[in-house]
């Protein structure tokens, strides 16, 4: 069908000498009909079926070559989210930034870019090139992922002018940024919904008692905390100046990853934000002692995050005292909070580098199956396990046992059992 639609929208070439083209022209002439012209709405509907991402880039490029009409309609979708990698980056820069000075030569294609993902770039370009790209695409840019290299302080000025951003990912940035610099960069991004901190070490202010608070975007919903969190904790969670906590009001998704974190900082943050959270992630925490200061241990997560729907946690942070009391060794060892909490999805990630718990304290799928039998976490429906990490050999049997019990729980609650059970995921590369 698409081939027919493409052929209908083409204007026959006057220089074509192929037999097929001549036969088609004769057939059209003999029938006395003009070539069918597709309305723009039909072409836009066709383009809407193309999936987002790299796979559609070649197809969209081919659509731009069909005719002027197809080019005018497909070019915006082609440049909305360009797939950038080593070989094509220089050509993209030359197209979007044909001159160093935008006043000398400007490209209208720069205004079409909505997503600028530079995460797959290694050492292509320079810091000046990154700043120039941000400057040219600022009017329409909504999603930005910064590169690991070729990012510097000069990029912050250009980034701060991208006021329409909805998602800002700085998690790959290796350049050290101060908390104040990051705050000044995002303070005008009123539409920002997702923010990921850089994982690099931060430049700290000389006077710890004159730290500036973060200018949080008013609509921020998802926050990933990485790198050095000293300033975040002492400026906004528990300010050293004795002021009130300054944290985003609409946060529902929170992640701690690639960071040094202790139990005091963790619990203080959850005490402020936990009641609003529906998603929490703990991954690749490089601290040497992740302590839980409360008697409930890891169940602090359940106590402070009563509305949590999804928990993603590294396997060596998933201790049995998330659900069970370590002080009771009988059939009544399930913690009261675990009997009522409505956690629905549990994602068990590969180990972090904490090494703070002994193996006997860690929870496995056999423990989870026992918890389901005791009606702990009554809303739990899926347990996703990252593959390629060390686990006890009996997990294969325990996985099957837990899988069946989760499906049985779904059937007992008149839910679709196909949506419940144990799943496996490829090891994430973050």
TrEMBL record:
Residues 37-75 form the F-box domain. Residues 7-24 have a biased composition (Low complexity). Residues 1-24 are annotated as: Disordered. This is F-box domain-containing protein. It comes from Verruconis gallopava. The lineage of its organism: Eukaryota, Fungi, Dikarya, Ascomycota, Pezizomycotina.
């Amino acid at each position: 069908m698409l081939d027919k639609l493409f052929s209908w929208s083409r204007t026959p070439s006057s220089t074509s000498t192929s037999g097929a083209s001549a036969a088609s022209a004769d057939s059209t002439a003999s029938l006395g009909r003009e070539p069918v012209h597709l309305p723009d709405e039909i072409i836009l509907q066709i383009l809407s079926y193309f999936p987002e991402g790299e796979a559609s880039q070649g197809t969209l490029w081919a659509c731009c070559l069909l005719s002027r009409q197809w080019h005018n309609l497909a070019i915006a979708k082609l440049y909305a989210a360009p797939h950038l990698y080593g070989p094509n980056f220089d050509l993209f820069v030359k197209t979007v930034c044909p001159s160093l000075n935008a006043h000398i030569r400007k490209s209208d294609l720069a205004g079409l870019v909505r997503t600028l993902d530079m995460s797959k770039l290694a050492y292509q370009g320079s810091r000046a090139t990154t700043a120039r790209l941000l400057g040219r695409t600022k009017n329409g840019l909504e999603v930005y992922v910064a590169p690991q290299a070729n990012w510097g302080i000069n990029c912050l000025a250009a980034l701060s002018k991208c006021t329409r951003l909805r998602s800002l990912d700085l998690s790959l940035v290796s350049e050290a940024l101060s908390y104040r610099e990051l705050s000044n960069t995002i303070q005008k991004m009123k539409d920002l919904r997702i923010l990921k901190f850089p994982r690099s070490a931060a430049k700290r202010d000389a006077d710890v008692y004159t730290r500036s608070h973060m200018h949080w975007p008013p609509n921020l919903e998802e926050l990933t905390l990485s790198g050095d969190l000293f300033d975040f904790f002492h400026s906004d969670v528990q300010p050293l100046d004795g002021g009130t906590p300054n944290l985003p009001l609409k946060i529902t998704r929170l992640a701690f990853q690639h960071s040094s974190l202790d139990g005091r900082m963790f619990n203080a943050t959850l005490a402020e934000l936990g009641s609003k959270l529906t998603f929490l992630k703990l991954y690749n925490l490089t601290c040497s002692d992740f302590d839980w200061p409360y008697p409930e241990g890891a169940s602090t997560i359940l106590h402070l995050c009563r509305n949590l729907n999804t928990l993603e946690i590294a396997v060596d942070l998933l201790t049995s005292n998330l659900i069970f009391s370590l002080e009771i060794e009988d059939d009544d060892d399930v913690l009261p909070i675990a009997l009522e909490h409505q956690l629905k999805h549990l994602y068990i990630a590969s180990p972090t580098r904490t090494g703070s718990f002994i193996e006997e304290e860690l929870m496995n799928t056999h423990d989870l199956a026992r918890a389901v039998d005791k009606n702990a976490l009554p809303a739990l429906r899926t347990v996703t396990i990252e593959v390629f990490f060390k686990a006890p050999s009996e997990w294969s049997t325990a996985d099957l046992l837990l899988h069946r019990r989760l499906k049985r729980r779904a059937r007992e609650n008149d839910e679709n059992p196909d949506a419940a059970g144990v799943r496996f995921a490829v090891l994430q590369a973050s």
